[in-house]
Design a protein that fits this description.
Helix content: 10-25%
Number of domains: 2
Number of helices: 2
Order of helices and strands: EHEEEEHEEE
CATH architecture of the largest domain: 2-Layer Sandwich
Shape: globular
Strand order of the largest sheet: 1-4-3-2
CATH class of the largest domain: Alpha Beta
Distance between the termini: 31 Å
Number of strands: 8
Largest sheet: 4 strands, mixed
CATH topology of the largest domain: Signal recognition particle alu RNA binding heterodimer, srp9/1
């Protein structure tokens, strides 16, 4: 038996802003709001499914230095160029981390500057849970 990633926690200044952004990027929904301002987002079927949920935890001051973890995303229903346009339209911004321009991915940042990459491969969406279509 092994572990699975069930949740990712992202500390941020504005959990509601990032919840709206990442829900749009990933087609997630808000699953829970805590009294301390944290927001949990995830797939419509909720916690424990094939995808981890994301907890956006309020933190006034970001950690110093570069994060050692970033998210990679792949389009499911369009090509990379069309998905890049969509991500830029909803608030992502290009990031320059020294890439050559020949990479098959795009480096972006979310509205609070957290890096993520849009990869070239298009992958199929997850199938809905049994009984839901």
């Amino acid at each position: 038996m092994a572990c699975r990633i069930s949740e990712l926690v992202l500390e941020c200044r504005d959990p509601e802003l990032l919840a709206r952004f990442w829900c749009e990027v990933l087609d997630f929904v808000v699953l829970d709001r805590e009294e301390d301002g944290a927001v949990e987002i995830g797939p419509r079927e909720g916690f424990g499914g094939p995808q981890p949920t994301i907890i956006l935890s309020r933190r006034d001051e970001p950690e110093r230095g570069k994060s050692r973890l970033h998210v990679d995303v792949n389009a499911t229903d369009r090509d990379q160029d069309a998905e890049l346009e969509r991500l830029l339209r909803i608030g992502a911004r290009p990031a320059d981390i020294g890439q050559t321009g020949q990479e098959p991915w795009h480096v972006l940042v979310d509205p609070e500057g957290n890096e993520f990459c849009l990869l070239k491969a298009r992958i199929p969406p997850l199938a809905p849970p049994a009984g839901r279509a």
